[in-house]
Amino acid sequence: MINIVEIKARSNNQEKIRDILLLKHAICKGTDHQVDTYFRVQKGRLKLREGDIENNLIHYHRENKEGPKLSSVTLYRSEPDSSLKKVLTEANGILVVVDKIREIYFIDNVKFHIDVVQELGTFIEIEAIDETGIRGNDELLKQCEFYLDLFGISKHDLVSVSYSDLLMQKVN
Predict the structure, then answer these.
(1) CA–CA separation, 136 and 22 (whole Å)
(2) Residue 136: which region, alpha, beta or left (left: phi > 0; alpha: psi -120 to 50)?
(3) CB-CB contact of 34 with 54 (8 Å)
(4) What is the pLDDT of residue 172?
(5) C-alpha dist (Å) from residue 128 to 1, 43, 79, 90, 99
(6) Average pLDDT of the residues in 111-138
(7) Which architecture, in CATH terms, is 2-171?
(8) DSSP state of 12
(9) H helices within 11-134, ranges in order?
(10) Mean pLDDT score, 140-162
């Protein structure tokens, strides 16, 4: 189980954020076209991420609230083009599919996503990650808040729900 404190915000300042990340010597992992297929499950969220850089089956629990929020994540690294998607679709059914272009950056244990999400627009995500249990949730929260301030993200731009929820709200 991995603990993550994360924020998601609408952003029209992609260039400014990218420049700040580069000034802070962030490591750029590249730009990934990711398709996240969310499956129907009884608890939490289950998604299969298919990309050129990241391919994972991800099960997570996270409360829907604006600002930094804690996620408990179980991650399974999957192989591209495996039969996993077919098995999960047959067993659970598809809830929604999120298609995005994602730039991925790291500074130490903090991961940054600059996203362009089909049908939704542009976003920034900040994930302070604790894979070992050493950092603790308070430190992760402080890291998220630091970068929120550094990037000049206003409370008005914070998003409380996942991309999947935003897409389903558009449909309903």
Answers:
(1) 27
(2) left
(3) yes
(4) 62
(5) 14, 23, 25, 34, 23
(6) 95
(7) Beta Barrel (2.40)
(8) S
(9) 14-23, 84-92
(10) 95
